[in-house]
Every structure is written in structure tokens, then in C-alpha cells.
Amino acid sequence: MSTLPADEDALTQATIASASEYGRYGYRRITALLQAAGWQVGKDRVQRIWRREGLKVPQKHRPRSRLWLNDGSCVRLRPLHRNHVWSFDFVQARTHDGRSLRILTLIDEHSRACLALKVARRINSVGAIEALADAMCLHGIPEHIRCDNGPEMILKALRKWVAKTGPQIQYIAPGSPWENGYCGSFNGKLRDECLRQEIFYLACCRFHGHPV
User: Whose CB among 69, 169, 172, 187 lies 3.0–4.6 Å from 179's, allowing a Cys bridge?
Assistant: First the structure.
């Protein structure tokens, strides 16, 4: 008869607590959190506890086959190397007093690196241009920029500036957020791991990523 490790009860409680706090995480990401907290544990052991305790693995939405390849990348323009395709989008958040925030997120679709986060109460075409220009100074100029077809993206100043710098803009179709899946995935993690976990008091912040 096999015996359980001495720390089984403590690890079980830590697993349940992490799963309760991060409701959309599966056992693999819970394993990473436990390891970051100091647990010497592998994903197989966490999976066994996960199943034994009846924890629910979040279901994945089936992608639309006409728009995605088997590896999950977009059919319309698959990133082949660093600086091939950048994507940017906007995320909504709020400060402690209920006032809205806008966060511009910019990622490299090939490396999945976050190249910039710009936070402000409002972000217009000038703010978007500033974020893109700063990122290009740090990381180089991309060949393509994929972005939403919403109000911020169709401003004449932004289109003219991008045309002068070299990249080609790849607009996604209205009502088709899955076409910007890389940025959408990053934004989901940003909400889960930051925006829903913290209280924000200020509305002015800028982050520029570094090459990885």
C-alpha cells in the first residue's frame, strides 16, 4: 500500500487555495504558481491532486477553423520571426474611485513579448503614436502592425504616421476579435493576473519591454 508524502495535506490546501483565487487557471499554471511560492512539485503531482479534489479545468473555446491554423496562429498573417508582426489593442480598467482607465497593450506576435503598456484616462491617436514610436526606438521597426478597426485606429494621423515609418497595417474585421488572438490572449492574462488582483489609484504609467 502506497503512502502519501508528508506534505500532501499542505500541498493539497495550497493547490485548492490557488485554484480558488485564480479561477480560470488549469493545473499547469497552478503548478507554476506553486513553484514560484517555493514548492518543489511537478505538474503530474498537482494534476493528481487536482483530479482527486474534483477541481475543474477551465474549458477551452473551440477556435473557428476558417481563421486559425492547428497551432492556434491566425491564418491571415502568421508571424514568422521577431518584428514580423506586432499587435496592439486597448483594455478597459478602473481606479479605486470608479473612474475609467485605458491601457494600450503592444506585443510581438512571434516572441509573445510585451513591448509596451501605456496607461491613461484617455488615449488618442497621439498617445498611440507615442507608444509605437518609443517601442520602435527600443526594438526596431516591424513589418506589420495588427490592430483593431475601432475609433482609435482609424484616425488619419495614425494611418499617415504608420505609412511613413514603414509597417503595413493589418486591420481586423469588425466584430472579429479572434483575428487579433495573440493580443487578446495577453490581455486576458493581464486582466486575470493584474487588473483583477490589484487596486489602482493613479492613471499615468508607461512600460516598455525589453528583447527576450
Answer: 172
Please provide the distance, in angstroms rounded to a whole number, between the alpha carbons at the two ends of the chain: 48
State which residues form the domain around 152: 85-208
| Residue pair 182/82 in contact by the 8 Å Cβ criterion | no
The DSSP bridge partners found for residue 107 are: 87, 114
- pLDDT for 55: 83
CA-nearest of 128, 95, 58 to 199 is: 95
Same-domain pairing of 99 and 163: yes
Asked whether the beta carbons of 120 and 203 are under 8 A apart, the reply is yes
What is the C-alpha separation between 118 and 125, in angstroms, rounded? 13
Same domain, 91 and 19: no
Q: Is residue 100 part of a domain?
A: yes
pTM for this prediction: 0.63
Contact indicator for 73, 183 with CB cutoff of 8 Å: no
